Amino acid sequence: MRKLKWPIYLLGIIFSINTYAQNDAEVLKKIYKASLTNGKSYDWLNYLSNQIGGRLSGSLNAEKAVNYTKEELDKLGLDKVWLQPVMVPKWVRGFKEYAYIESEKGKRTKTTTVNICALGGSVATPALGLKAHVVEVKNFEELKTLGKENIEGKIVFYNRPMQADLISTFEAYGGCVNQRYKGAVEASKYGAVGVIVRSMNLRLDDFPHTGSMIYGDLPVADRIPSAAISTNDAELLSTMLKLNKSLKFYFKQNCKQFKDVLSYNVIGQITGSEFPNEYMIVGGHLDSWDLGDGSHDDGAGVVQSMDVLRLLKISGIKPKRSIRVVLFMNEENGLRGGKKYAEVARQKGENHVFALESDAGGFTPRGFSFDCNDASFNQVLSWQPLFKPYLIHYFEKGGSGADVGPLKTKTNVLAGLRPDSQRYFDHHHASNDTFDAVNKRELELGAATMTALVYLFDKYGVNPIANGKQIKK
Amino acid sequence: MRKLKWPIYLLGIIFSINTYAQNDAEVLKKIYKASLTNGKSYDWLNYLSNQIGGRLSGSLNAEKAVNYTKEELDKLGLDKVWLQPVMVPKWVRGFKEYAYIESEKGKRTKTTTVNICALGGSVATPALGLKAHVVEVKNFEELKTLGKENIEGKIVFYNRPMQADLISTFEAYGGCVNQRYKGAVEASKYGAVGVIVRSMNLRLDDFPHTGSMIYGDLPVADRIPSAAISTNDAELLSTMLKLNKSLKFYFKQNCKQFKDVLSYNVIGQITGSEFPNEYMIVGGHLDSWDLGDGSHDDGAGVVQSMDVLRLLKISGIKPKRSIRVVLFMNEENGLRGGKKYAEVARQKGENHVFALESDAGGFTPRGFSFDCNDASFNQVLSWQPLFKPYLIHYFEKGGSGADVGPLKTKTNVLAGLRPDSQRYFDHHHASNDTFDAVNKRELELGAATMTALVYLFDKYGVNPIANGKQIKK
């Protein structure tokens, strides 16, 4: 009987909340069904991976990928599709790297070949390769302790593994990647002649994993070549070093940095029906490393983002705000595309209220991380029940993504799709980042999950307390 | 200031709850760390898969797997390890199956070979194979509509695909598997001479997926051979049938059912320190189909269950209740092991308060489903925050597992580990259910998640309202 005493207006609110929620639940169902039964992401990825392949910035393949994705967006009947010019670095691996461990047994010299690859941005070795003694370290502090007397003229071997007991493999990556990124700069302070880095990979296998590194202010003459070694071979080298400190390591790599070249971000837009000057973007990066197909990093994010606009259309959703897909160029070794997009947006005074990035692989989506204020985050949390049927549970504050980062304002919402991370670093930046490692359904669930979030933010608006009107209706 | 008015005993309860939760959080952290940095599950699976292989009931490999897992359990220093005899069916595939579609083009006959495999329990075709016209149906109702006049003397081709828009692939499987399980019985009512079933697989690929089927009361003479066809070839056959209703399908299979043979459940036990007569079991099934290695189905569940007892030990947990690992024989084509275990438990009056099964693949664990009363389920829900750091969010009422099912009582708790299901049916019962499809970390996270649940149920007891004492302390 107590219920009857509730004020009528409260009942009204409860009723309308339920109705909204039911409508939204129906729309989400339609979106997921569209993606799982009529998605295009997998077909697009098949083409990007198997007909084009690795798409390093400045390469012919990157150009092909620009043309292909623009053509495909053109077919979707969006309101606008265009290319945004951006100058990007051009680094070329050249002929495949070669490396071996040389140890002496009595009077005989034994060589054991190992799997390496040049790090992106590294200089080449001398034409005949580089051979030197090796000093193994786990971190930069050890370099300091060892000092110049123990390092000069040697190859520094960084061998700190990713921490296996961290649940998020990205956290484990974050705890190791400075070895790769800054290892050469740090080692050259002590007169090292080269750098070998344990691959950022939680598995033990034979794939070397590339990735970017920088020389900073180091004069060109002081730049030392850096390569990644597979985890199996890192273990081998470490074991052999324990038995024989005087072994030598030989490697030869043939990479080269060229002048910047012209490339493009690829952009498509559905213009908003009510607030055309409020922009919501979804994106991934079109460039990839050169060793594999770049299927997970970030072909997956590219095709999922493309399909968000298509899934909105085929689900009969007409956005109030302008929704853009942005395929960023050069995330891997420069972030020029992300910076350029934000720069142009600022110049034009475009109000970007929301940006969602998918750049963590095409695995089963678990949720999102958000970079936003509390009001927007609470708004997101109120949508959690809508995502439960799709096993999307993870809604946390945290980073969003490298390419959308430069768009940050005080009031907008940046978000990153968070797929299951366990297998990501098995493939990341390695020659086994290939199409066969992507599961169609996992990819499609990601595209649907992104579309659902875009739908909700478009419908209810971003930062409702500041806007006022959205929270009332 | 209001807080100071709270009764002291309430503060005491809150304090003790927090302390418990903190301790439990620490224990779970230790368990997950132990599994991810010092787990044995992956090594054991490597041996089971690559040194033994597929373990069909009654086969030499099944016997090897019994011996191997018993030996490994013996090494763990458990309180008791033993084999429980059970008679199991023995069905043998024999020489690889062969099939083609025969169509006529003008005066020429064209044959297209397709990928099939006999369903488990099926009879062989005649020695020279079986060739007949084909009638395609989606379900048993269509058989009825078509009637004997359209089916007699033909091969029935069941081609209802798994429903792609269901998020749980197990639900999609449940909606299709009657074609495989009862397809032959139903088709033979209308005089069909054979059955071809679309593989239970959401992907389009070339792997035929086997699985059990029954003839029920059908006299031996009336039993018709049944085979699964790969999804790609199901699509092909369907398309060719649309163009040419008079095509013929040929298949030859050489399988045979033998008399039951002796096999074993493998059991290990840590005897409880306080309530040794309360049993909590964890298990998976040791048998598998013969086409692949049975890595996901259910090598994963076997090695995870074995590691639960080991992880408890190395994490310094001394269970109050008796914890058993049970490796069931013959889940796939008879469930004899599960039935036998429950039968013996009943005979001995053993009180099984808890049983957890892992038989849904070695993929990233998402949570559990429970078959229990509300009191126990609410107890589980109170532990949800403890699992959140490990991204374990799914706690739902629902089925547990086939092997532990026969242990159900009114008060006990049956549970099933629920890993991510998206890739499961890519491999299920097919030749690509192999070790390389299992990710080490995903497998280990599953073992840790199982161990954590066992730890909590052991510590707090099952069904606290009925027991009384657990809820007070």
From TrEMBL, chains A, B:
Highest taxon of source: Bacteria
Secretion signal span: 1-21
Location(s), subcellular: Endoplasmic reticulum; Golgi apparatus; Lysosome; Secreted
Subunit structure: Homodimer. The monomeric form is inactive while the homodimer is active.
Residue intervals of the Peptidase M28 domain: 265-451
Alphabetized Pfam families for the sequence: Peptidase_M28
Key words, A-Z: Carboxypeptidase, Endoplasmic reticulum, Glycoprotein, Golgi apparatus, Hydrolase, Lysosome, Metal-binding, Metalloprotease, Protease, Secreted, Signal, Zinc, Zymogen
Name under which the protein is recorded: Carboxypeptidase Q
